Amino acid sequence: MIMRRTLPGVLAAACLLVAGTIDLAAQRGQQGQPQARGQAAAPIDLTGTWVSVVTEDWRWRMVTPAKGDYPRVPLNPEGRKMADAWDLARDVADGNLCRPFGAGNIMRMPGRLQVAWADPNTLKIDYDAGTQTRLLHFDKSLKPSGERTWQGWSAAEWEFAGGEGRGAAGAARTGTLKVVTTHMRAGYLRKNGVPYSEDMLMTEYFDRHADFGDQWFTVMAIIEDPRYLSQPFVLTTSFKKEPDNSKFRPTPCAIDPPLK
Predict the structure, then answer these.
(1) Structural domain tally of the chain?
(2) Tens digit of pLDDT at every position of the chain (260 positions)
(3) pTM
C-alpha cells in the first residue's frame, strides 16, 4: 500500500528531473553557439525607401523657425543662452550648415531615407536630407574610435516581444529595433540653433506597423544631454514606405533663412 501511494510521486519527481536535465543541456548547447544578431535575427524588416510624414511640429520641421522659437524643448539656462545666440550667417561662414542634420535631428528632417543591410551585422540608413548616412552596428565587439562625426556611433540590438527565444517553433517573431547613439559632433535639435552637445545620449526604438493599407515605421527617440537639457527630450516620428526609390534625391546640407 505504501508503494502504491508513493509511486505517483516518485514518477513525477523522475519526470521533473529528466525535464530539468534536458532543459539544462539545451541551455548549455545554446551557450556554446554564437547568438544570432543583425539580419539573421531580424523580427521586422525595415529595408526599403521611406518618406517622412509630417503631421506634427510642422513649423519647426518644414521651415526654419525664428531664433528663440524653442517651446517644448526642455532647455536649461545654458541651452537657452546658446539657442538665443544662434546666427545662421556664422554657421555658413564656419562651414557648419550640417549641424541640424546630425543624429539628434536627422530623423525629424522632411524627406526620404533608404534602409539596407551593408553587411549581416550593419544596417545602413541613407538620408536625402543633407546626404547623410548612419550605420547601425549589431556587432557588440565594435566600439567607436577616431573623431566624432555628425551621425556618431550607433549600437543596435533587437528587442523581441515576450523575450528572446519565446514562442512556438517556426512562429513569426515580432519585436523592436533599439539603437543607442553616442560619439557625435555637437549639433542642433532644430534648424534654428537649438543645441545638443557632444555629451548627448540618444536612445531610439523603431517599430514597424501597417495602417490604412500602407506600411509604416515609427521611431521614438529619447534624447538626454546633461549640458543643454534639464530633462530627457522625447520625440516620435513616422515614415511611410514607398514602392521604389524614384523620388529619393540627396541634397547637400542647406538651411533656409529663419522666419521673422
Answers:
(1) 2
(2) 433 444 344 334 434 433 443 343 344 334 544 567 999 999 999 999 999 999 999 999 999 999 999 999 999 999 999 999 999 999 999 999 999 999 999 999 999 999 999 999 999 999 999 999 999 999 999 999 999 999 999 999 999 987 654 444 444 568 999 999 999 999 999 999 999 999 999 999 999 999 989 999 999 999 999 999 999 999 999 999 999 999 999 999 999 999 88
(3) 0.84
Residues 26 and 69 in one domain: no
Amino acid letter for position 228:
Y
Range of 203's domain?
37-241
Same domain, 165 and 188: yes
Cα–Cα separations (whole angstroms), residue 222 to 58, 120, 227: 20, 27, 15
DSSP string, 204-255: EEEEEEEETTEEEEEEEEEEE-TTTBSS-EEEEEEEEE-SSSTT---B----
Q: What is the spatial distance between Cα 149 and Cα 174, in angstroms, rounded to a whole number?
A: 32
Residues 12 and 55 in one domain: no
Is 6 found in the same domain as 131? no
50 with 14, same domain? no
Asked if the structure places residue 186 within a domain, the reply is yes
Buried b (16+ CB within 10 A) or exposed e, 52-69: bebeeeeebbeebbebeb
